[in-house]
Design a protein that fits this description.
The protein is mainly beta and about 140 residues long. It is built from one helix and ten strands; from the N terminus they run αββββββββββ. The chain has a single domain, classed as Cupredoxins -  blue copper proteins (Immunoglobulin-like).
């Protein structure tokens, strides 16, 4: 009887981990609801470079794995948006509508950017066929933040 419970638990955990993810295996994402996961530490962003195939709505899912409060700002010549402050161990999401182009990513708190908390987000134009970065996933990626 105990083995049946263990087997049932293992199957439930396996199915929960599968999610509804249409990822083609090459890091690409289709449709809307694109999510980019970014991990902040003291003092770096991971990944530092993210490429999104097409312009449109993107959610930045930010997790603070550092010991200091952080935030994430995304900026270009005519665009600027920032997350709330994120305490150590916490997460935040920032959903933005992005045009094709290059955006700076950085932590705007204190001198964190100068200490290395910066990166780049490249957004391709519709139909350009740009490749996507490994950080891009479908909306239901199973991320627990």
């Amino acid at each position: 009887m105990k083995a049946d419970r263990v087997l049932a638990l293992m199957i439930a955990l396996l199915l929960a981990g599968c999610g509804n993810d249409d990822d083609s295996g090459d890091g690409s994402s289709s449709g809307t609801g694109r999510v980019i996961e970014i991990v902040e530490t003291d003092f770096a962003l991971d990944p530092e470079l993210v490429t999104v195939e097409t312009a449109g709505e993107v959610t930045l899912r930010i997790r603070n794995d550092g010991k200091t409060t952080h935030s994430l700002e995304i900026e270009s010549d005519d665009f600027e948006e920032a997350s709330d402050e994120i305490a150590p161990g916490d997460s935040a999401e920032l959903t933005v509508e992005l045009e094709a182009g290059e955006y700076e990513l950085y932590c705007p708190i204190g001198n964190h950017r100068d200490q290395g908390m910066e990166g780049t987000l490249d957004v391709g134009a519709e139909g350009e066929g740009a490749t996507t970065g490994e950080a891009e996933t479908e909306e239901d990626s199973g991320y627990g933040g």
